[in-house]
Amino acid sequence: MAAGAAWAAADLFDVEDALAFASQQTSANVASQTRALTPPQADVVSALASRILPAVDGRPGATQAGALSFIDRALATFNAAQRPLYTDGIADLNRRAQAKVRGAVGFTALTSGQQDEVIREVEATPFFQAVRLDTIVGTFALPSWGGNRDYAGWHLLGLEHQMTFKPPFGYYDAEVNRRN
Amino acid sequence: MAPQSRPSARFRPNDLVDFVIVGSGAAGGIIAKELSTAGHTVVVLEQGPRLTERQFDHDEFGTFMRGHNINDPATQPHTFRPTPQAPAKQRQVLVYGRLVGGSNAHFTGNFWRMRPSDFNEASRLGGMRGTGLADWPVTYEELEPYYTKAEWELGVSGEPGPFDPPRSRPYPMPPLPVKSSGVLFERGARALGLHPQPSQMAINSRTYNGRPACQHCGFCLIFMCEFRAKSTSMAVMLPIAEATGRCEIRPNSYVAQVEIGSDGRATGVTYFDAAKRMQRQRAKAVVLCANGSETPRLLLNSASSRFPQGLANSSGVVGKHLMFNTYFEVNAQFEQPLNEYKSVQNTRMVLDFYETDPKRGFYGGGGIDARFGRYPITFALEGLPRDAPTWGEGFARELGRQFPRTMAFGCHGTSLPLETNSITLDPTLKDAWGLPCIRTTYTDHPDDLKNAAFLGGHATNIAHAAGALKVWAAPVVAQTLAVHLLGTCRMGNDSRTSVVDRYHRTHDVRNLFICDGSSMVTSSRGQPTETISALAFRAGERIADFAKRGEI
């Protein structure tokens, strides 16, 4: 039985036309090249993604992995059904940011600490859950889907992508080999 | 990487071939090889595409979330209801491989024999009220030569454990190198007085019959092997079949019906080609190896005035006794990196809890193995304990720290055959070819869930005894997703209670045979592939004999 195959049950996207992606990977230059999101919307999603998976301990996060590039492409194609969710959710984040900090133009104008406070307000919403899922996919899916640039997401996990490995693979089997 | 042999036989649909086989997976590939090497002409129809090693990838998102290489819910939707009284809702419950090579092309590689006790549990336990628990019409002793054949012809790495059934030959290859999860598992299991043993895998631990040893890239589960180190129908059987010059593998061929002549014999099958044009392949005999969901669907979709309840269904048991096997996981974090993403899924297991023990108070048993568990996306979504952060610095830090330090304990268990768990046709839903879709009805028997919880409890104990820093598991709940599709055209000697006889011939149609997971009478202990393979070697040999003797 497949571990994690629970996913297959939840087909999260409606339309299958994403394979075209595989052949048209670009080096995402963030907002200037977005297709589904406007540049200001892309900035908000990018800021949100970088709070969901920030760069820590010298490892890359969602921004370094180019998760936004995956998210925008998905919204432009197979995930188009979620565009209204994104549009409304982004507007809501900006309104909350303005309510929190007088004169703030929107979510991107907040400090990361203030952004986290706003996120805690919306954590349970379908919008945040969608962005969280898409940020994770955009960080860890194969680069051919548009994110995980140079396997940055796999670097975050400490996963080396190689077609061949030799034992020992980890600490405990190495320990046994040393002993024998 | 050795190139795949090219198809050397080409038949036209109007050619009368000896056999048409529906499905190219574990059973279809083996039977194609057995029949074609015995001198028969064979066409294998496979609904999925034919891919080469160059087209394989390690695309977790495509495979797990976009339906690559599996049945596609967009074109082949199906419905699910927990009980016959509940309304059926559209939902993907059944998952199978949709490519030349079938589910077997991307299976994990676990290759377990069943034991003598699996074949006569019903009579040993005195039956089980309210279930369809029955004895098999074959014994372990009859199947043993074919288990051996499967292990040697395909290529299996392993070492007999203390409870293994008698075997006529040793494993052809030694076990694969132990991983950190295996070392820890062995430590924990021994501390509890259990008997850990190397996992038995249809994956090469050294060069075998021209195919290389495993290169430990780590992408086995639901991925095809670029190195052909996984011993599958696709890598091993289909090339031999094609090299005979008598076998054609025809991909993108979606079978609609088995056709029956006025004499009640099968005359071939109708299918849709890649352009959705209806085609017909004539054959002297038909062999269905389309898996435990599509085989019964095909029979039910082949109903006619002569066979109003569906083809080969005079017993009424076509589609019934569907079994999924239970699968539950216990997760554990350790102090040092295990790097479980490298190499095969699992390298150690225990089979101490295999047998049904009436003292436990429920039917069932199973095995526990030490495994990788989750690829990157799935790990980020569900690989951390429930109390871990789900976003922010804490989330990123925990992912980075725990991905290399996490392992899973896979608990593989039994499913009881129940008449109410079934594949039927949905009364309204049609697929992209206009054919009635599958409706699945399924609820685990309470004993199946008790057994899963029992195995999970032992897995938890092993994890603690191995020194895990943190151990956790999701609650045991009724299963609504399955990759093992078993029991729906069960074997038996009595034509009133089974679909095929002990040689896989349908009781109702002399030249129609069925061999795949649907043939299984009981569920195995969660790893059915070797048994399906052994049944297929035996069926292929016997069907070839019948053909030779004019008994088809």
Q: With helices defined by DSSP (H or I, 4 residues minimum), what is the helix count of chain A? A: 9
Q: Overall 3D geometry of chain B?
A: globular
Which stretches of chain B are low in confidence, meaning pLDDT under 50 for 5 or more residues running?
none
Largest sheet of chain A: none
**What class do helices, strands and sheet pairing of chain A give?**
mainly alpha
Strand coverage percent of chain B: 15-25%
> What value does the average pLDDT of chain B take?
97
* Greatest contact between two chains: A-B, 59 and 78 residues
Number of helices of chain B: 11
Low-confidence stretches of chain A: 1-31
What share of residues of chain A is helical? 40-55%
Which oligomerization state do the chains in this entry correspond to? heterodimer
The SSE string of chain A, one letter per element, is HHHHHHHHH
Going by helix content, strand content and strand pairing, the class of chain B is: alpha/beta
Largest sheet of chain B: 7 strands, mixed
- What is the mean predicted local confidence, pLDDT of chain A? 86
- How far do the termini of chain B sit from each other? 40 Å
Radius of gyration of chain B: 22 Å
- Fraction of residues in helix of chain B: 10-25%
**Over the alpha carbons, how many angstroms does the gyration radius of chain A reach?**
19 Å
SSE diagram, text form:
The complex is a heterodimer of chains A (180) and B (552).
Chain A: H1 6-9, H2 39-52, H3 62-65, H4 67-76, H5 83-100, H6 112-122, H7 126-140, H8 152-157, H9 171-179
Helix pairs in contact in A: 4-7, 5-6, 5-7
Chain B: E1 17-22, H1 26-37, E2 42-45, H2 60-65, E3 79-81, E4 89-90, H3 121-125, H4 140-155, H5 180-191, E5 197-198, H6 233-243, E6 247-250, E7 254-260, E8 266-272, E9 278-288, H7 291-301, E10 326-333, E11 346-350, E12 366-371, H8 376-382, H9 393-402, E13 406-413, E14 422-430, E15 436-441, H10 446-465, E16 470-473, E17 512-514, H11 529-548
Parallel strand pairs in B: 1-2, 1-9, 2-6, 3-15, 9-17
Antiparallel strand pairs in B: 3-4, 5-11, 7-8, 8-9, 10-13, 10-16, 11-12, 12-13, 14-15
Helix pairs in contact in B: 1-6, 1-11, 4-11, 5-10
